[in-house]
Amino acid sequence: MSQTEARGVTRPDWPTAAAAQLDLEVIVPAFNEQHRIAPTLYALVEELQTLPFRSRVRVIDNGSSDLTPDTVERVKASLGAGYIALSGCSGRGKGRAVAKGMLSSSATYVGFCDADLATPAGAIRDALRLLEEGWEIVVGSRLCAGASYETEQRLLRRLGSAAFRNATRNISGGIQDTQCGFKFFTWDAAQKVFARTTISGFAFDVEVLARARAFDLAVKEMPVRWSDQPGSTFSFRRDGFTSFADVWTLRRALSDASARRA
Prior knowledge:
By secondary structure, the protein is an alpha/beta fold. Helix content is 41%, strand content 18%.
């Protein structure tokens, strides 16, 4: 008996590569994640097997120079066809990798999570429940009521995050935690938002929320249990400055667009 059958869950046959339609696709952007990607993929697939959806995990390799693609292919082969797909993204930056995955998906629901799985795979079930209730975007949050930290961030990261939240407060639509790498969308909402995103770096999440606000989409902030993971590719010195600069540019662009509409 399979683990899924043991849990008493009835789900459709897992899709093959030729499947015409998926109910759910989970996008995982990856850059030099050979040491962390395998356990994440196994955890995601195990969770998706418990859901009554035709589902798939798709890794978007963002120009890795290590063995990330080989590791993904090895996990894919061990699980069998249909569970995992691998795509490449020539444009550098997490924002571009996520946008490519979201825009090329045809699943009814599509979302993304980080390769370190700092938000546990079980949160996917809660996100889908909210989407089925009528929300168009579900945003994982480490700061809203009910959220918790299993492992705290380092002090410098916490201070930088607080400063970043203050800088983005007026354009993020009231979302308390813009940067949690766990967001799920209806297909239509994903197409509207990601077709217009331009930021390729870590501040792309802010632009996603700003675009959602411009379209007046129904966004729900969902509490998650978050655990800081070692090995992050985010550099406070390098990416922090770029992220603040991207937000400043985005703010100006949104202001100019608003002025033109007026």
